[in-house]
Amino acid sequence: MPYVLKRLCHECRNEIPPKNWRGKSKFCNDPCYRTWQKKHPNKGTFRKGHIPPNKGNKGIHVSPNTEFKKGNRPPNSKPVGTITVRTEKNGQRRRRIKVAEPNKWLMYALYIWQSAGLTLRKDQILHYRNGNSLDDRIENLEPVTRVEHIELHRKDLILARIRSPEDATQGYIKPNTKYNLFIQQRLAKSRSLGEDCDRT
Question: Counting beta carbons within 10 angstroms of the beta carbon of residue 16, is it exposed (0 to 12), middle (13 to 18) or buried (19 or more)?
Answer without folding.
Answer: buried
